[in-house]
Design brief:
The chain has 376 residues and is an alpha/beta fold. Strand 12 and strand 13 form a beta hairpin. It comes from Mesorhizobium wenxiniae.
Length: 376
């Protein structure tokens, strides 16, 4: 149903515009809402002088309250007769608080525009059904592809019982990702590095192998003014527990969690020393001498992680690609070559695995950026 004095095409255009705004809003708490996705909600009413946003909400840090509750509280009585734009189907199951679908009904909302359906079996289709049964007009799948791409971590965790895996690599102009034994090598400029910090801020975890941890001694934190507290958990694949107690990773455990994935036969004294320093351990199974990655991802999902950013190095990247566990590929490319002694990247823009489609190209200063995703 079109709004007052508007054609169907005009209403569809408005719906897309407000949903795009709700999606932008939903990014505010990405990576901070525990097992719940970061959802955006707008309450929009039109009293004949044009649509006006009267309430906004985003899933709170920790996952509660939900976005609908926040937006309705801000709108108050102005929600009666209004339209709600929600980036994810309103929940339909009772917990300690009523379902969001019922909250929308009780507030007097008469139209709900949704983006993505919730795959959670307690919700899937039921939230929309509650609304329709009460006479609310429901419009589904507005900017659905954009919303699914943005909350891929939640959808993948719900459907596949593991986090979304984002493989991020920085390549030199000649396709190298570093130099053996040289520690960290600067490949991209400051603007691109800032974008990486933003990617970290929206992830639940950052994962590297022990080789990268030993050679680069990274901190793996978000180092942007005002976003320092958005650093996600760090995860190191360290089957034999070789991580030094003096590493930057261990030094930062009082501020950012650090998980070490190690096998049962690893040195118990090394484990005890790191545990005393505050390191948390994930017991892992091994397959052909390496950590069993599918089982590890299940464990990370059980810890509440919906998205994991794989940052290094070449061996770890190859392993995730070989297992078919990568959902998103992000490649930064710098302007300078490393030379023949560099470590060849396991992947480049001309050799993307089957099943991925290019999502976007961008530039950050002098560096290029390309991103591919696998449809869920």
């Amino acid at each position: 149903m079109a709004g007052p004095g508007r054609s169907q095409a005009e209403q569809e255009g408005l719906d897309r515009r407000f949903m795009a705004a709700a999606l932008r809003l939903s990014r505010k708490n990405a990576g901070r809402t525990a097992t719940n996705p970061s959802v955006g909600t707008l309450i929009v009413r039109d009293d004949g002088t044009g649509p006006m946003i009267v309430g906004t909400g985003v899933t709170a840090v920790g996952g509660r309250p939900h976005a609908e509750t926040e937006a309705l509280a801000e709108a108050g009585e102005l929600a009666r007769g209004a339209t709600a734009y929600v980036t994810l189907e309103p929940c339909a199951h009772h917990g300690r608080t009523p379902p969001c679908a019922n909250a929308l009904l009780n507030a007097g909302v008469t139209r709900v525009v949704g983006a993505v359906s919730d795959p959670d079996p307690r919700v899937s289709g039921k939230g929309y059904a509650i609304l329709r049964a009460a006479g609310v007009e429901v419009v589904e799948r507005v900017l659905a592809a954009e919303a699914a791409e943005q909350m891929a971590g939640y959808l993948i965790r719900s459907l596949k019982k593991r986090p979304e895996v984002i493989l991020k690599l920085a390549l030199s102009s000649d396709g190298k990702i570093g130099m053996e034994g040289e520690g960290q090598v600067s490949i991209t400029g400051d603007i691109a590095r800032r974008e990486v910090y933003l990617m970290r801020a929206e992830a639940d975890g950052i994962l590297i192998g022990i080789g990268t941890a030993l050679e680069d001694d990274p901190a793996l934190t978000v180092r942007l003014p005002g976003l320092e507290n958005r650093s996600p958990a760090r995860i190191v694949l360290d089957r034999q527990i070789r991580l030094p107690e003096t590493s930057k990773l261990v030094a930062g455990v009082d501020r950012v969690p650090l998980y070490v994935a190690a096998c049962a036969e690893a040195d118990p004294y090394r484990r005890a020393a790191l545990e005393r320093a505050g390191v948390r351990f994930i017991g892992t199974e091994t397959y052909e001498g390496d950590i069993a990655l599918p089982e590890l991802l299940e464990d990370l999902a059980a810890l509440g992680m919906a998205s994991v950013l794989v940052e290094g190095g070449a061996k770890v990247a190859k392993a995730f690609l070989a297992e078919g566990l990568v959902d998103r590929i992000v490649l930064f490319q710098g302007q300078e070559p490393i030379g023949r002694s560099g470590i060849v990247s396991p992947i480049d823009a001309n050799h993307i695995p089957a099943g991925f489609r290019k999502l976007r190209d961008m530039r950050f200063g002098e560096d290029s950026y390309a991103e591919w995703i696998r449809d869920i």
